[in-house]
Amino acid sequence: MAKLYFRFGAVGSAKTLNLLAVAHAYRQQDKQVFLMKPRLDTRFGEAVIRSRAGLSQKADLLVDADTVLDLDLLEGYHCILVDEAQFLSADFIDQLRRVTRVLQIPVICYGLRTDFRAQLFEGSKRLMELSDAIEEVKTTCAFCNRKGIFNLKLVEGRPSLAGPTVDLGAEEKYLPACHDCFAKELEEGTELGFCQAAQHKGRETSSRGALRDLEDQF
Length: 218
Description:
Elements: E1 4-8, H1 15-28, E2 33-38, E3 48-50, E4 56-58, E5 61-63, E6 79-82, H2 90-102, E7 107-111, H3 122-130, E8 133-136, E9 150-155, E10 158-160, E11 174-177, H4 179-188, H5 208-217
Parallel strand pairs: 1-7, 1-8, 2-5, 2-6, 6-7
Antiparallel strand pairs: 3-4, 9-10, 9-11
């Protein structure tokens, strides 16, 4: 039976690069790959799946909150690859699960596990519930050499827990962090320059509001 995979990782863990490499491997064997991503992800262009390394491919389908998959559209494909899967609805994840059963096509989803408040995204939650295989794409913390598992959000250079759950951005807004550094940066409210993130020195005024929010969660 075809499987549903969820490959998750913190920001900057090369998830999209991994997706594009898998697509390349299939095509090297003359196999057909179907690429999709949420329409709301417009960081690099509406229909573009692009890695931070600069590689890109065009998405075959842009997914909206109410998208209903046409199974006939997927006939003949050997694999379905999904980028930024955390932004998908639970209902759409259910549809992808059905594809693996009805069409016997493997579906590999890439995305974040949690948002900048360390809470599961809707799509990620459903993938954790339904996937046959859950695999971590690893990266290191931007502040130390431990594994980065959280996504630290920066607003005007300062760690923050404010704003909507879906708040698009790249390296200028989000950094991978281990639990200790995630908590420390929010507690101390360090003002960061992106290029200094891994070797910053000195501390600024404590961000008490962010700390109280963090304590409410952990």
